[in-house]
Amino acid sequence: MAAHMRMFFCLSLMVILLARSTLTETDNYIVHMDLAAMPKPFATHHSWYSATLSSVLLDTSPLRTTTSSSSSLPSKLIHCYKHAINGFTANLTPSQLDALKNSPGYVSSVRDSSVRADTTHSSNFLALTPNSGLLPISNYGSDVIIGFVDTGVWPESESFNDEAISKIPSRWKGECESGTHFNASLCNKKLIGGRFFNKGLIAKFPNVTISMNSTRDTNGHGTHTSTTAAGSYVKEASFFGYGQGTARGVAPRARVAIYKAIWKEGNVVSDVIAAIDQAISDGVDVISLSLGLDGVPLYEDPVAIATFAAMERGIFVATSAGNKGPQFGTVHSGAPWVLNVAAGTMDRDFGGTITLNNGVSVLGSSLFVLNSAIVLSPLPIVFMGQCHNLKKLKRVGFKIVVCEDSDEYSLDLQVDNVQSAKIAVGVFISNISDWDNLIQTSFPSIFLNAYHGNVIKDYIMRSSNPKARVNFHKTIIGTKPAPSVARYSSRGPSESCPLVLKPDIMAPGDAILASWPQKVAATDVYSRPIYSKFNVLSGTSMACPHAAGVAALLKGAHPGWSPAAIRSAMMTTADVVDNTQTLIKDLGNKNKVATPLAMGSGHVNPNKAIDPGLIYDIGIEDYTNLLCALNYTKNQIQTITRSPSNDCEKPSLDLNYPSFIITVNASDSESGRREISREFKRRVTNIGEKGATYRAKMTPMKGLVVTVEPKMLKFKRKNQNLSFKLKIRGHVSVKRESDVVFGYLNWVEVGGGHRVQSPIVVAGLRSHWN
Ligand SMILES: *[C@@H]1O[C@H](CO)[C@@H](O)[C@H](O)[C@H]1NC(C)=O
Ligand SMILES: *[C@@H]1O[C@H](CO)[C@@H](O)[C@H](O)[C@H]1NC(C)=O
Ligand SMILES: *[C@@H]1O[C@H](CO)[C@@H](O)[C@H](O)[C@H]1NC(C)=O
Ligand SMILES: *[C@@H]1O[C@H](CO)[C@@H](O)[C@H](O)[C@H]1NC(C)=O
Ligand SMILES: *[C@@H]1O[C@H](CO)[C@@H](O)[C@H](O)[C@H]1NC(C)=O
Ligand SMILES: *[C@@H]1O[C@H](CO)[C@@H](O)[C@H](O)[C@H]1NC(C)=O
Ligand SMILES: *[C@@H]1O[C@H](CO)[C@@H](O)[C@H](O)[C@H]1NC(C)=O
Q: Which residues does UniProt mark as catalytic (predicted)?
């Protein structure tokens, strides 16, 4: 009974002090504690955290009065964590924090900060069809629960209909919390959980007013990502006619649990950790995190630390790479225990046509929502060159204006100008073809490549009275080449752990159609909000749930696979060629061949991932051995693993990862010519039904000799492990971060169909922090 009462100590403890100890400003701190140091009398870590904190508050109180104040500890202790980290979040002054650092069991702490949210047809593009492959084998992900830490959910969305979905798995411990405009009756067999976390936000910003204190999504991001991964079938979905068809998520029968920690009013990591903590406790199988922290080492990244705990419990975590590309070294969430997802384009384009008065018609990209009569009748069309001069633009009047992109004036700026100038239609000519994040304009617009742009320019120049009509709502399927790496997708290497290649994989992220809250504006037309049940968004935020959905299907098909095994299966079977059967290109690098720093192992191929042949598996110890070899202090390692007894007897940089990277310091050489000599050790497990022989095959790497020992792996039976060494020697020229040398190791099954592919990269690294 006593133990039971202490369970709630965290929330109900009364402290005896005056809270006015704050002559300096308070802030939230996420504090890591060593549970092994907890004295016996404490039945739960919660009661211990409370006692530790109240003794610190007493010691630092200037008045040391014993006047009773019933609310101060609860208001100081913001979150107690059970699973994600050993510790809590408290709102403290610097002197209180200093006192806490001397408390028994204190390990480390970080100041609470904000995370960056990396803001239908896609399933067909991934070749997920109902008749064969991963979808039927996994029973559409029916037994798998995906947790989303995001902006909440719009439960009325048709994508959460639970027709044809079996009863909720009995192991589920989550719930649908009541709150503003939200209660348990809104959940069903599809949307099985909804919780919200904002105590950290309110503690850090006491002035904040929470406008929707519940899991209800007033932003749209969470509704979009969750339905991308696991939306049910919805017939006749479209965004104002664009992308018309049946919408569904990657894993259409997987269960959805939403953990709202990203608010319209802001967000803090301490709430994100509380959300992950609860998701672990509730029993999710997969966590999708379309967010991340920039520029912190692993041991100061609470999200990386919380996902370590999730991984330990067999939960697969997918995170977005970030939208800071195409600069190198911008990828965030680079923890070796998660799947980091880059964004690619699809073979679908949304567009509009310009029909010139000479009868010639040209197709461009557009997502303009109205198709009104105004734009259908012929209008004068003028070529303005660069649309940088707003005054000049304002004099044009109600015409179709043609603008051209340049290095001097970015497309974004020109689009903004045309919007401000209130022109009838804007036509933008540009060589950058991944403008999917630009084309949802609030005025009629069409984006053209240089080739089609020239047709228009020629016509205007030759005609005495140039006129044209425009038309929207075109959807073009089967565009080539696809996929390509989206320009904005963040690039590796990962600064937080450059020894592991990140991103891991690429998934569709560009112009993704998914559900949207009915009462949140999907877009606007001349500042007038426009509502829709579906919306088209672009970003690595959209790529992450695609990968989470695929992981859910794999988990459904292979319940025994570890998170590392699922990741390995996805990575080693990813495609490196596009739908023209040539190597995938990078829209952020002049359409050159994409390197693994842009797309990881390649574009996810779910139907191949179901049967990868070999697996590179990783256990908890392997990750600890890596942290040891990174020369982290005992304290830093404990902060991540939550264990005081980390055995650093066998430090090893050879994490059994299905990719290879060597980084060289790009800032300390004149000539840039470097000698490379490195040996990697790996262990692969044969998960095929019987014995099999694999032969190593390497693609050439400029200036380098790559050898594998042994060259053949002869497995006698299922689940047998065999090890090999990969040696890389030679010279590379690395003067800039963009100097990347890469190739692939393939284990090709002799007399069988399996091909187990791993990228090998030598890249320049320039540290931006440290
Ligand atoms: C739950 O919310 C729905 C929709 O807002 C409402 O119709 C219903 O009465 C509520 N149920 C309870 C028990 O409050
Ligand atoms: C909170 O609001 C008050 C009154 O508007 C203002 O004086 C104060 O600076 C605000 N505090 C913070 C932390 O924003
Ligand atoms: C939000 O709702 C929770 C749970 O109902 C409640 O404890 C909390 O005080 C509310 N917060 C605000 C800011 O209204
Ligand atoms: C597009 O690229 C071509 C060839 O590199 C160049 O001549 C042209 O000026 C570019 N056009 C634009 C709009 O950037
Ligand atoms: C760790 O420290 C050892 C010994 O000082 C050194 O040889 C090694 O290069 C360091 N490892 C890393 C990853 O910095
Ligand atoms: C890289 O080289 C620069 C210049 O020599 C040096 O200042 C820096 O410390 C080096 N970085 C690493 C990680 O070795
Ligand atoms: C193969 O290695 C895994 C760890 O990666 C281990 O769990 C398993 O027991 C090993 N299998 C055999 C047959 O030794």
A: 150, 221, 541
Quick check: 701 and 744 in contact, CB under 8 A? no
At residue 475, the 3 state secondary structure works out as strand
46: region left, alpha or beta (phi > 0 left; psi from -120 to 50 alpha): alpha
The SS3 assignment for 257 reads: strand
CATH placement of domain 27-58+73-111: 3.30.70
Identical fold for domains 122-346+484-609 and 613-618+655-765, yes or no, is: no
Q: What are phi and psi of 534, to 5 degrees?
A: -130, 155
Integer Cα distance of 137 and 141 in angstroms: 9
Backbone angles phi, psi at 702, to 5 degrees: -55, 120
283 and 174 Cβ atoms separated by less than 8 Å? yes
Please tell me the distance between residue 685's alpha carbon and the centre of ligand 7 in angstroms.
7
pTM value is: 0.91
Q: Which residue has the tokens 């109900």?
A: 12
Per domain, the residue ranges of the chain are 27-58+73-111, 122-346+484-609, 348-472, 613-618+655-765
| Contact of 517 with 292, CB cutoff 8 Å | no
HSE-up (13 A, CA, CB side) for residue 562: 16
- CA-closest residue to ligand 6 atom 13: 665
Written out in words, the top-level CATH class of the domain with range 348-472 is alpha beta
φ and ψ at residue 663, rounded to 5 degrees: -105, 140
Fold of 613-618+655-765: Immunoglobulin-like (2.60.40)
Catalytic residue among 541, 568, 601, 758: 541
- Rg, the chain, Cα only: 27
Q: Strand 692-698 vs strand 712-715: parallel, antiparallel, or unpaired?
A: antiparallel
User: What dotted CATH number matches 122-346+484-609?
Assistant: 3.40.50.200
Q: Please choose, from the candidates 625, 590, 739, the residue with its C-alpha nearest in 3D space to the C-alpha of residue 674.
A: 739
Report cis status (omega within 30 of 0) of the bond before 498.
no
DSSP H helices in 294-354:
302-312
> Tell me, what DSSP letter sits at residue 230?
H
Q: Which residues of the chain have pLDDT under 70?
A: 1-24, 61-74, 119-128, 131, 372-376, 434, 667-671, 767-770
In the reported structure, the alpha carbon of residue 594 is separated from the centroid of ligand 4 by a whole-number distance in angstroms of 21
The residue annotated as part of the active site, out of 32, 221, 473, 603, is 221
Q: Tell me how crowded residue 497 is: count the other CB atoms within 10 A of its CB.
A: 19
Q: Which of 302, 336, 283 is nearest to 87 (CA)?
A: 302
Crossing angle of helices 302-312/634-641, nearest 10°? 60
Say how many Å lie between the CA of residue 722 and the centre of ligand 5: 28
Helices (H) and strands (E) in the chain, counts: 21, 37
Q: Return the SS3 of 696.
A: strand
Q: What is the DSSP string of 562-627?
A: -HHHHHHHHHHT-B-B-TTSSBPEETTTTTEEPPHHHHTT-B--HHHHT--SEE----HHHHHHHH
Which of 11, 177, 213 best tests ligand 3's pocket when mutated (most atoms within 8 Å of CB)? 213
State residue 768's pLDDT score. Answer: 55
What SS3 state is found at 235?
Answer: strand
Tell me the residue length of the chain. 770
Helix, strand or coil for residue 313? Answer: coil
Q: How many CB atoms lie within 10 A of CB 667?
A: 11
Return the residue whose CA atom lies nearest to atom 12 of ligand 3. 213
CA 223 to chain centre: 15
* Cβ-count burial 649-660 (b if 16+ within 10 Å, e if not): eeeeebbbbbbb
Query: Ligand nearest 618 Cα, by number?
Result: 7
Which amino acid makes up residue 721?
N
pLDDT at 506: 98
Catalytic residue check, 288: no
* 9 φ, ψ (degrees, to nearest 5): -50, -40
* Apex 726 CA angle, 721 and 727, nearest 5: 155
* Cis ω before 297 (30° cut-off from 0): no
